[in-house]
Amino acid sequence: MDREPVHTLAINLHELGLRVFLDAWELGPGDVVVHRLDAGLAGSRAGILVVSAASVQRPWVQQEYAALLTRSVELGQRLIPVVIADAVLPPMLASRLWVDLRGKTGSAYQGALESIARALRGERPGPPPRRGALRIP
To answer: What is the per-residue pLDDT across 68-92, written as a single tens digit (0 to 9) for each?
Structure first.
């Protein structure tokens, strides 16, 4: 159910020049899954937790969330929640500024995607460019 939006997100972030660890791309026959996932987390500067009602109930996602949260608290790794479907966010995840992709298409999706990419690069939105004109109400 979440596979398509997760893969689309990963492909788009890859196309934007980011290095993406996605299990479908990184795990192969004979791999010890937990070791590859540990290596992926250890080699990451940031992590995305894709949130839906289904994902927050999955044991593997719960383990990944625990690992990402631990790395965030102990090592300062950025943890970005990305909501793709209605769900109740765990309290420690809900306390973070999250990205809402629910129902977004076209330019709205692209804008949200670009905000994720900026955050992953450590960039802040910043003020708009100066135009040399005041906006008087």
So the answer is: 999 999 999 999 999 999 998 888 8
Can you give the CATH number for the domain in which 10 is found?
3.40.50.10140
> What strands lie across the sheet with 99-100, from one edge to the other?
46-51, 78-83, 99-100
Report how far residue 7's alpha carbon sits from residue 24's, in angstroms, rounded to the nearest whole number: 9
On whether residue 133 sits in a domain, the answer given is: no
Number of domains in the chain: 1
- Report yes or no on 137 lying in a domain: no
Within a domain: 63:
yes
The dihedral region occupied by 59, where left means phi > 0, alpha psi between -120 and 50, and beta the remainder, is: alpha
Instruction: Please tell me the pTM assigned to this model.
Output: 0.88
Tell me which DSSP letter residue 56 carries.
G
| HEC letters along 94-132 | HCCCCEECCCCCHHHHHHHHHHHHHHHCCCCCCCCCCCC
